[in-house]
Automatic annotation (TrEMBL):
InterPro entries reported for this sequence: MoaB/Mog-like_dom_sf (IPR036425), MoaB/Mog_dom (IPR001453), MoCF_biosynth_CS (IPR008284), MoeA-like (IPR038987), MoeA_C_domain_IV (IPR005111), MoeA_C_domain_IV_sf (IPR036688), MoeA_linker/N (IPR005110), MoeA_linker/N_sf (IPR036135)
SUPFAM superfamilies linked to this entry: MoeA C-terminal domain-like (SSF63867), MoeA N-terminal region -like (SSF63882), Molybdenum cofactor biosynthesis proteins (SSF53218)
GO biological process terms held by the UniProt record: Mo-molybdopterin cofactor biosynthetic process
Source species: Marinithermofilum abyssi
Pathway per the UniProt entry: Cofactor biosynthesis; molybdopterin biosynthesis
The keyword 4Fe-4S belongs to this UniProt entry's keyword annotation: no
Keywords: Magnesium, Metal-binding, Molybdenum, Molybdenum cofactor biosynthesis, Transferase
Name of the encoding gene: moeA2
Enzymatic reactions: adenylyl-molybdopterin + molybdate = Mo-molybdopterin + AMP + H(+)
EC number per UniProt: 2.10.1.1
Domain of life: Bacteria
Protein's UniProt name: Molybdopterin molybdenumtransferase
Function: Catalyzes the insertion of molybdate into adenylated molybdopterin with the concomitant release of AMP. May be involved in the biosynthesis of molybdopterin.
Molecular function (Gene Ontology), one example: metal ion binding
């Protein structure tokens, strides 16, 4: 049986429908203040005592009665004797008959019974009155306040030991899918690791809920119905993941219709469309899509508003900045699109580009810096609002690299982060696209794979950027060759016979001129965004052979037939090299960590890594 997906409301409309349909009734519990961090107060809290609880010295010195000090001057210092003064330290109660403190720096101690002062004390100078900080009966914290570290201090100072807070909403998370197994388990044929619930659990905790992840439920309507019914009776919110779209085993909508009322099935958002919102026994039930990016986005769209409503708190808007698009954004009409992008400050301007979808859904999510929310296409060059998933500070200091791919570049990026604190955000494209992006000021550095003459490369760069403000930093050399599954290939063709008509050939997006030249070749050619993804595809049987590197072949467990060495260098402006990243980049290149990994993977040569190879001003003598 297939489910019909109905007309789709916008996210905000769906949230409204959900919140209208449920009554959230949090209980109050009293928790020890020391354990109340992040909890939300159910009532206003009033001080049970004053702080300080007595008049207290604000400085180290002597406590005096101001009257006894009148007339003291530089010219005629005044001596105080016996009970006219008391030595006192900050925080001590000031004795009853005194009303001021003279700082010890202004006191000349003659002997233990006699001191001399050179100016009179003003009444209540350096004395903190009872309740100066907190007065008994004063409101310390209002209702519906999330308790921060300093709030705990105020409560304890004000004599509060236990604080009434809203019970955390108990959220059941039910992973479903007969193919899903706990992530710790080795995968047998067709099995998939169930990891969304761990992500849900972490988000829910962060948002102030008490998640409870249940056992994985197989794709059987009766099992799912049982799990949901039980969860709805014992929890405040129930989340099912996944089985919410139109597949023959997507039972979530059907089961929810049987158990309660389905409010919404499908929202006008991509990704994240196949959401099911329902109410079972008065409990809100969210059926969220299985694809991780859709799952996490839709969790935030619907679970977060429920939790905030539970606590009667507004939703904190995510930080949004304005960025200039370096590439056009194309979207299908009829829904809002959440376009993941990466961003950085190049030439004083925040720029952003959509991350390639081929980068893998989960990884592209954590590698992107945020998203653009749009219902229509947008031209390159436009300023757009960008919702951050990383701190703005981190983005301001992030370096963008575009160009050819190599897994060792990630190791280098990690060393760079370790040494400079700055993140390297890398997108693999072809050499020519990399040079062009760099020349247009869309990234800081272009990564260039090259096996020809230096002069030729020089003129390639000069074509894109005639100014001479550039240099090429020497990266590493790597062995290129055929990558091929070990043993026997599907059709028995040998690796040297890569153009055999029955072979599927995988190629990495970064190799210029590898695109199919004739239509008849397209079905045999698969374009993938990185060497390791190409290698994984061969290992998985999607393709037979591909040009790659010794390291990529080794990491994927493939055979390798070496062909020729190629160099991977970094193109940057001289000013970037001198004033921004050059030094850190060279240091990371030359660090032992990179060499160690290169040796371990094999096929690399790191001689003269980090030296200046070419510059727009001509040959750089002594560096070659
Ligand atoms: N004919 C149609 N097919 C699909 C549609 C559609 O409208 N018509 N929608 C697509 C969209 S959009 C999405 S999103 C997916 C997800 O749909 P489901 O919610 O039904 O998800 P499943 O099919 O159950 O799972 C898909 C996939 O997600 C991963 N997954 C699921 N649960 C977990 C988990 N707990 N941890 C980690 N990963 C999980 C897993 O890779 C599943 O294979 O449907 C499209 N299809
Ligand atoms: O909308 Mo699905 O949620 O694209 O991945």
């Amino acid at each position: 049986m297939h489910n019909q997906i109905r007309e789709e409301p916008l996210i905000e409309e769906a949230v409204h429908i959900l919140l209208q349909a449920v009554t959230l009734q949090p209980d109050v519990e009293n928790v020890r203040v020391k354990e109340a961090l992040g909890r939300v107060t159910a009532e206003p809290i009033f001080a049970k005592r004053s702080m300080p609880p007595f008049p207290a010295a604000a400085m180290d010195g002597i406590a005096v009665n101001a009257r006894d000090t009148y007339g003291a001057t530089e010219e005629s210092p005044l001596r105080l004797h016996g009970d006219q003064f008391v030595f006192i330290n900050t925080g001590d109660p000031v004795p009853r008959r005194t009303n001021a403190v003279v700082m010890i720096e202004k006191v000349h101690v003659v002997d233990s019974h006699t001191v001399e002062i050179t100016e009179p004390a003003v009444p209540w100078k350096h004395v903190r009155h009872t309740g100066e900080d907190i007065a008994k009966g004063e409101m310390l914290i209002s209702a519906c306040q999330s308790l921060r570290p300093a709030d705990l201090g105020v409560l304890l100072a004000g004599g509060i030991q236990k604080v009434p807070v809203w019970h955390k909403p108990r959220v059941a998370v039910i992973p479903t899918g007969s193919e899903m197994v706990p992530p710790e388990q080795e995968l047998a044929g067709g099995e998939l690791p169930e990891f969304n619930s761990a992500v849900f659990e972490a988000y829910l905790k962060e948002w102030g809920a008490e998640p409870n992840v249940e056992q994985i439920v197989p794709d059987e309507p009766a099992s799912l119905a049982k799990a949901v019914r039980q969860a709805a009776q014992t929890h405040d919110i129930v989340i099912i993941n996944a089985g919410s779209s139109a597949g023959s085993k997507d039972f979530t909508p059907r089961v929810l219709k049987e158990l309660g009322t389905v409010l919404v099935h499908g929202v006008a958002a991509r990704p994240g469309k196949p959401v099911v919102l329902a109410v079972v026994d008065g409990t809100p039930v969210l059926g969220l899509p299985g694809y991780p990016v859709s799952a996490y986005l839709s969790l935030e769209w619907f679970a977060l508003p429920l939790i905030r409503a539970w606590y009667n708190q507004p939703i904190a808007e995510r930080e949004t900045i304005h960025v200039q698009l370096t590439h056009p954004v194309q979207v299908k009409s009829g829904a809002e699109h959440f376009v993941r992008m990466r961003a950085g400050k190049v030439g004083g301007q925040m720029k952003a580009a959509p991350v390639s979808k081929g980068a893998g859904a989960t990884l592209s999510l954590i590698r992107s810096d945020g998203w653009l929310r749009t219902s229509s296409g947008i031209r390159a060059g436009e300023q757009v609002p960008f919702v951050l998933s990383r701190s703005q500070n981190e983005l301001q200091h992030q370096w963008l690299l575009t160009g050819n791919d190599d897994p060792l570049l990630d190791v280098w990026g990690s060393l760079l982060k370790q040494r400079s604190g700055r993140r390297l955000s890398r997108e693999s494209t072809s050499r020519s696209e990399g040079i062009r992006a760099w020349a247009r000021g869309e990234c800081h550095v272009a990564c260039i794979l090259w096996s020809g003459e230096d002069e030729e490369l020089s003129s390639l760069v000069a074509q894109e950027k005639p100014v001479q403000d550039w240099l090429l930093l020497k990266g590493f050399q790597r062995q290129q060759g055929w990558m091929k599954a070990g043993g026997y290939s599907r059709n028995g063709a040998g690796v040297r016979d890569a153009h055999h008509k029955d072979q599927t050939w995988v190629y990495v997006a970064d190799v210029d001129g590898n695109e199919p030249k004739q239509a008849s070749e397209s079905d045999r050619r698969l374009k993938l965004p990185s060497l390791l993804k190409a290698a994984a595809a061969i290992a998985g049987g999607t393709a037979d052979v591909g040009i790659g590197t010794q390291a990529a072949a080794k990491l994927a467990g493939l055979d390798f037939v070496p062909l020729y060495p190629a160099r991977l260098d970094l193109l940057m402006t001289v000013s970037f090299y001198e004033k921004e990243g050059g030094r850190a980049m060279v240091e990371a290149f030359q660090s032992p960590g990179l060499n160690k990994r290169a040796m371990e993977w094999g096929g690399y040569n790191l001689n003269d890594v980090g030296s200046i190879l070419l510059s727009g001003r001509g040959w750089e003598p002594g560096n070659r």
